[in-house]
Structure prediction request, 72 residues.
Amino acid sequence: MPAVRNIVKDFRVEEAKAERKCHANSSHKILAGEKHFAYDDPGRINICKECADGVLKVAADHLEKVRVELSK
Ligand SMILES: [Zn+2]
Prediction:
Protein backbone atom coordinates (compact mmCIF):
# COMPACT_ATOMS: atom_id res chain seq x y z
CA MET A 1 0.00 0.00 0.00
CA PRO A 2 1.45 3.40 -0.90
CA ALA A 3 2.25 5.73 1.95
CA VAL A 4 -0.47 8.26 2.70
CA ARG A 5 0.71 11.80 2.13
CA ASN A 6 1.03 13.91 5.27
CA ILE A 7 -0.47 17.27 4.30
CA VAL A 8 0.50 18.93 7.58
CA LYS A 9 4.11 17.76 7.71
CA ASP A 10 5.34 21.34 7.86
CA PHE A 11 3.62 21.67 11.28
CA ARG A 12 6.49 21.40 13.72
CA VAL A 13 7.97 22.39 17.05
CA GLU A 14 11.01 24.63 16.83
CA GLU A 15 13.34 26.15 19.36
CA ALA A 16 13.70 29.89 18.73
CA LYS A 17 17.27 30.86 17.82
CA ALA A 18 16.49 34.49 18.62
CA GLU A 19 13.54 36.35 20.09
CA ARG A 20 10.50 36.08 17.83
CA LYS A 21 7.04 37.60 17.67
CA CYS A 22 4.02 35.34 18.16
CA HIS A 23 1.90 35.51 14.99
CA ALA A 24 -1.31 34.71 16.90
CA ASN A 25 -0.95 37.60 19.38
CA SER A 26 1.41 40.47 18.55
CA SER A 27 1.88 41.32 22.24
CA HIS A 28 3.42 37.88 22.86
CA LYS A 29 7.14 37.27 22.52
CA ILE A 30 8.86 33.95 22.00
CA LEU A 31 12.20 34.13 23.79
CA ALA A 32 15.45 32.71 22.39
CA GLY A 33 15.71 29.03 23.30
CA GLU A 34 11.96 28.69 23.88
CA LYS A 35 10.00 25.93 22.12
CA HIS A 36 7.14 27.06 19.90
CA PHE A 37 4.79 25.85 17.19
CA ALA A 38 5.79 26.71 13.60
CA TYR A 39 4.43 26.13 10.10
CA ASP A 40 4.73 27.69 6.64
CA ASP A 41 2.03 29.90 5.13
CA PRO A 42 4.17 30.13 2.85
CA GLY A 43 6.47 32.31 4.99
CA ARG A 44 7.35 30.86 8.37
CA ILE A 45 4.69 31.40 11.05
CA ASN A 46 5.72 31.22 14.71
CA ILE A 47 3.12 30.66 17.42
CA CYS A 48 3.99 30.74 21.12
CA LYS A 49 3.21 27.79 23.38
CA GLU A 50 0.36 29.67 25.04
CA CYS A 51 -1.44 30.32 21.73
CA ALA A 52 -0.49 27.03 20.03
CA ASP A 53 -3.01 25.05 22.06
CA GLY A 54 -5.94 27.11 20.76
CA VAL A 55 -4.61 27.30 17.18
CA LEU A 56 -4.12 23.51 17.03
CA LYS A 57 -7.56 22.94 18.58
CA VAL A 58 -9.23 25.09 15.87
CA ALA A 59 -7.27 23.18 13.19
CA ALA A 60 -8.23 19.81 14.73
CA ASP A 61 -11.91 20.82 14.93
CA HIS A 62 -11.83 21.93 11.29
CA LEU A 63 -10.23 18.66 10.15
CA GLU A 64 -12.86 16.72 12.06
CA LYS A 65 -15.66 18.78 10.47
CA VAL A 66 -14.28 18.11 6.96
CA ARG A 67 -13.85 14.39 7.74
CA VAL A 68 -17.44 14.07 9.02
CA GLU A 69 -18.91 16.10 6.13
CA LEU A 70 -17.09 13.91 3.60
CA SER A 71 -18.32 10.68 5.18
CA LYS A 72 -22.01 11.67 5.00
ZN1 LIG B 1 1.08 33.83 21.53
